[in-house]
Design goal:
Blueprint lengths: L1 H13 L1 H10 L4 H112 L2
Length: about 140
């Protein structure tokens, strides 16, 4: 506790207000020293209270600014959604239509491939039959 008292006295005596009081009142006596210390402490408390009020005002202003910025961003987001949503929906519908058209075209091409494969298979069978027939005819003719 004595250490704290000494520390307070050191702070108080080094404070400019103590220096002014000591010069005007004559701080040589213990009473004047205590009065000066009390005056300095009161001044420090008063200054701290003023600064605290200023900080609280600044905090409130910053909170209001944050709230205003939040509202502005919310409004801008809402506006962006209103502007972009129709375009997004339209693009999405076109995408779905294009996908469906591509699926239809793919199915049609697959059917054509299957038909061509069947025709190819039939033609290969016919060619094989014709080769067999040619061999039979060549044997009959004697070639």
């Amino acid at each position: 506790n004595e250490m704290n008292d000494l520390r307070i006295d050191e702070v108080a005596m080094s404070h400019p207000e103590y220096q002014m009081f000591a010069q005007s009142e004559g701080a040589s006596s213990p009473n004047n020293s205590v009065k000066a210390s009390i005056k300095v402490v009161e001044s420090i408390i008063h200054t701290g209270q003023l600064e605290l009020r200023e900080f609280k005002k600044e905090i409130e202003l910053l909170r209001q600014e944050i709230y205003s910025m939040k509202k502005l961003l919310e409004n801008q987001n809402s506006e962006n959604i209103k502007i972009l949503l129709p375009t997004i929906n339209s693009d999405f519908e076109r995408l779905i239509n294009n996908i469906n058209m591509q699926k239809h075209e793919n199915a049609m091409l697959q059917r054509q491939i299957n038909e061509l494969n069947q025709e190819k298979s039939i033609m290969q069978q016919q060619i094989m039959a014709f080769y067999s027939r040619i061999q039979v005819l060549e044997e009959q003719v004697g070639m």
